[in-house]
């Protein structure tokens, strides 16, 4: 069965912002708008409503999770757009959009929880609307204030990890792809098996396993000779993918990961999704102590809000090399245990810009 894709809260906010901008500048409400996705494609989004709201226009979109619904599925995402004195696009968070109160997230403390990629996507959508509605060159002097709102956002946020992360007052506006890929465990596991079968048939000796598209892209950038057919995005299926690698008799495997997933793999979690495998930063702090970090650093790691915050603390320090080695050694040990035989396991650890923080000798 083909699963239906949906779109992210970032895409919903972008479409609402574009519709409101078009209505404000042309006087005509839109029933659909076409928006650019972060992955480079475009998508037509239906507009729930677009209406005059004082000296502004308010437009709304119903977020569609496709066949992978989460708590934001069917949430109403709004954008209120009005002219302002400052030229360009000013983006704000309104009711139902959370505010960041702790460090360790991609958004600074005190700012609305609109992640960097959706922020760019919303700004681009409004800029496109300006270009479509006005004569060439006329848009340069226009200033617009865009406020994103979410109906029942505070209520929805209680069902997410936002309270634990210190995001208060609403949900986050998220999405690095712009679309929501339907996530069926059985379908995903079948994809992993099929990819490994293709690798075996093509003579690939070292499968490259990554947790998603970005880590795969970074791995292939770091190893330009790695063909696409040698890679498979295994998401959170750590144990399952290693078991399937073992069943096919591969003698080596290479993982491309980010810090949070590496810590979970080092802890031996079979499935690393946040819903079922909580990141234990207390254990990480203990490993930091084993690597010689000062006690106050270990305490800060144990009390960190996220893996990103812990990494920001640790990565500039000389002893981080020893910690990264410990983590990859432990993760490789868990991988071999899940695999069922003694194969060579390599790791490449990336930061979120694609910089290699650490790689094992097997990855060279």
TrEMBL record:
It catalyses: Co-precorrin-5B + S-adenosyl-L-methionine = Co-precorrin-6A + S-adenosyl-L-homocysteine. Pathway: Cofactor biosynthesis; adenosylcobalamin biosynthesis; cob(II)yrinate a,c-diamide from sirohydrochlorin (anaerobic route): step 6/10. Keywords: Cobalamin biosynthesis, Methyltransferase, S-adenosyl-L-methionine, Transferase. One of its GO terms (biological process) is anaerobic cobalamin biosynthetic process. It is an enzyme of class 2 (transferase). The keyword NAD does not apply. It comes from the Bacteria. GO terms for molecular function: methyltransferase activity. Its EC number is 2.1.1.195. Belongs to the CbiD family. This is Cobalt-precorrin-5B C(1)-methyltransferase. It comes from Desulfomicrobium norvegicum (strain DSM 1741 / NCIMB 8310).
């Amino acid at each position: 069965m083909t699963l239906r894709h949906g779109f992210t809260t970032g895409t919903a906010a972008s479409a609402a912002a574009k519709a409101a901008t078009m209505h404000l500048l042309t006087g005509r409400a839109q029933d659909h708008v076409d928006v650019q996705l972060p992955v480079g494609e475009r998508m037509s989004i239906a507009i729930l409503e677009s209406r005059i709201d004082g000296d502004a226009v308010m437009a709304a979109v119903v977020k569609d999770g496709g066949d992978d619904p989460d708590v934001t599925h069917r949430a109403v995402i709004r954008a209120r757009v009005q002219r302002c004195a400052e030229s360009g696009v000013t983006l704000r968070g309104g009711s139902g959009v959370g505010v960041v109160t702790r460090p360790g997230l991609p958004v600074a403390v005190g700012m609305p929880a609109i992640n960097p990629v959706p922020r760019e996507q919303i700004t681009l959508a409004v800029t496109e609307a300006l270009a479509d509605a006005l004569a060439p060159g006329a848009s340069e002097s226009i200033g617009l204030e865009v406020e994103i709102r979410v109906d029942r956002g505070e209520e929805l946020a209680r069902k997410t990890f936002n309270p634990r992360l210190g995001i208060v007052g609403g949900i986050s506006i998220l999405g690095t792809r712009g679309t929501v890929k339907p996530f069926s465990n059985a379908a995903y596991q079948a994809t992993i098996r099929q990819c490994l079968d293709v690798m075996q048939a093509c003579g690939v000796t070292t499968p490259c396993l990554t947790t998603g598209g970005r880590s795969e892209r970074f791995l292939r950038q770091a190893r330009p000779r790695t063909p696409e057919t040698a890679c498979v995005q295994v998401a959170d299926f750590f144990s399952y993918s290693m078991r399937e690698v073992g069943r096919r008799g591969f003698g080596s495997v290479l993982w491309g990961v980010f810090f949070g997933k590496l810590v979970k793999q080092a802890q031996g979690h079979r499935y690393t999704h946040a819903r079922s495998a909580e990141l234990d930063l207390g254990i990480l702090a203990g490993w930091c102590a084993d690597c010689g970090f000062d006690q106050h650093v270990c305490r800060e790691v144990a009390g960190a809000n996220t893996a990103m915050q812990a990494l920001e603390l640790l990565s500039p320090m000389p002893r981080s090399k020893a910690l990264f080695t410990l983590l990859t050694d432990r993760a490789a040990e868990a991988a071999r245990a899940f695999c069922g035989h003694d194969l060579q396991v390599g790791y490449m650890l990336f930061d979120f810009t694609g910089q290699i923080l650490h790689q094992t000798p097997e990855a060279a």
